[in-house]
Specification:
CATH class of the largest domain: Alpha Beta
CATH topology of the largest domain: Rossmann fold
Oligomer: single chain
CATH architecture of the largest domain: 3-Layer(aba) Sandwich
Distance between the termini: 30 Å
Mean pLDDT: 82
């Protein structure tokens, strides 16, 4: 079974123990850690070791950046560090980045930023306790991370516990987001399926109109179906597994009673992580908005019928005899997860 690979990018000497702890933490949650100093990077004999590190970045699904008080070795042919280039490669490849910075370095960066435009100070003489050397380059890299348009979070840490807690929360949130997106995609696909079905009904109705030479009743039904297309309350019914018809809507006082007249029972939930599901569940706040839209749709349908010189009762009575439930629906309340 494939497992996510996590590239850990940082200077090695000063952050040795952080890197070791990260390796075991990542492995314990079932992911594969990739550290350049641990043999996880393939050093191609035909390439420089710096290039091999960059080549490994696209093979990973997550990227952890740790910024400490050392600049590290310069990348071949450039004035930037190896860590800088690894980070930029992750940006180019659009890999999710989780960046953290030592609290002391973060504080010194604040001092640097506060005095950056102060012409009365000689910045070259300012000493930063947390920085070994090359302070301006480290601070410029911090600015580069923070000024990204997206994926620019930079979280300070005091010890490894802070790093572990942050990554656990972020990766759990990422997993939840992916699952929620999958659920939403499935709901949209389900909605599209029902829309196709209702389009097929409209096509069938059109053929019926032709065969009946444009009867008054068929013309009214065609107009009612046109009103239903694109209405949010109809979409809500479709996305929860119901197939409403003009007669079902006209025979029901509310969206909830319409579901009962269609022979099913809708479930209401307070869970705010979704609005509807194909198993017949609808979120309570969303239901309230859909009830308003349903009432407006029904009023428009009644106006259309009466403007055509007919009545709702006449239209319903001329339909094939079906058993329409008139009892009040007994709704099921689900617990919020």
């Amino acid at each position: 079974m494939a497992t996510p690979r996590v590239f850990v990018s940082s200077t090695c000497y000063d952050l040795k123990y952080i890197r070791e702890n990260l390796k075991y933490f990542i492995r314990n949650i079932g992911y594969e850690p990739v550290l350049s100093d641990d043999g996880a990077v393939f050093y191609d004999p035909k390439k420089h070791t710096h290039e091999s590190c960059l080549t490994e970045v696209p093979n990973c699904q997550l990227f952890v950046l740790i910024i400490g008080g050392r600049f590290g070795g310069e990348y071949i042919g450039k004035e930037t560090s190896i860590t800088n280039e690894e980070y930029r490669e992750a940006i180019r490849r659009k890999i999710p980045i989780f960046a953290m910075i030592e609290q002391a370095v973060y504080s010194d960066h604040f001092v640097y930023s506060s005095n950056k435009n102060n012409k009365e100070l000689d910045r070259s003489k300012i000493s930063y306790p947390s920085i070994d050397k090359n302070a301006p380059k480290i601070f410029e890299f911090i600015d580069e991370v923070r000024k990204q348009a997206i994926n620019n979070a930079l979280i300070p840490f005091r010890d490894f516990n802070d790093i572990e807690n942050y990554l656990r929360q972020q990766w759990a949130g990422m997993m939840f987001s992916f699952l929620l997106q999958d659920n939403e995609n499935a709901r949209v696909a389900d909605t599209m399926t029902h829309l196709i079905e209702i389009n097929e009904k409209i096509a069938f109705l059109s053929s019926e109109l032709l065969s009946s030479l444009g009867s008054k009743e068929s013309n009214i039904l065609a107009s009612l179906y046109e009103l239903m297309i694109g209405r949010e309350s109809v979409k809500a019914l479709l996305s929860t597994g119901y197939k409403p018809t003009p007669i079902a809507i006209l025979s029901s006082d509310s969206l909830l009673s319409c579901t009962t007249n269609l022979g099913k029972t809708i479930k209401i939930t307070d869970d705010k992580s979704f609005v509807t599901s194909g198993s017949g569940i609808i979120q309570s706040a969303y239901l309230k908005r859909m009830e308003k839209d349903y009432t407006e749709l029904k009023d428009e349908m009644i106006y259309t019928i009466e403007s055509s010189g007919s009545t709702v009762a006449e239209l319903i009575n001329n339909q094939p005899v079906k058993t329409i439930k008139k009892s009040n629906p007994t709704q099921l309340k689900t617990k919020s997860e």
